[in-house]
Amino acid sequence: MPNQATVQDIIDDLRLEPLAVCNGYFRETWRDEHATVIYWLLPESHRAALHAAAHPEVFTYHSGSPLRITLLHPEGRVEEVFLGPDLEAGHRPHIVVPAGVWQAAHTTGDHTLSSVIVAPPFTPDIVTLADADALSARYPEHADTIRALC
Known about the structure:
By secondary structure, the chain is mainly β. The protein has a single domain (7-149), classed as Jelly Rolls. It contains 3 helices and 11 strands; from the N terminus they run αβββββββββββαα. The protein has helices at residues 7-14, 132-138, 143-149, and strands at residues 17-18, 25-31, 36-43, 48-53, 57-64, 67-72, 78-83, 94-97, 102-107, 111-118, 127-129. Strands 1-2-3-10-5-8 form a 6-stranded antiparallel β-sheet, with helices on one face. A 5-stranded antiparallel β-sheet has the order 7-6-9-4-11, with no helix packed on it. A hairpin with a 4-residue loop joins β2 and β3. InterPro entries: Cupin_DUF985, RmlC-like_jellyroll, RmlC_Cupin_sf, YML079W-like.
């Protein structure tokens, strides 16, 4: 049976650092004038609270447990998607989150290791953290979900 890498092993091997904006750990691996690519590790002790990015993001699965991503679209539709390896279970190996869509994420197990591609390039100012009161007023039918994800 192969050894499972621990969260600390992954942090050390990939030289990841804490990610303040969306939680977890990251390392930018590529940047040019068009896009950025990061490794993003989300351990079970972390979650990415509800936020929106001004640019589209593409999440790609690498290892660990599936990542549950909850999306709140501008028209008020809530969608749950799973980034992961099991196509038969409905997981997807990559997920595109359009610009302006509210999103929150947590791993379904010990951790999820993914990459995130952002185009145009990521800068911290493209992220807006959700205001639970304001979003609940805008989408009252989803107020409980919004408050749970903030």
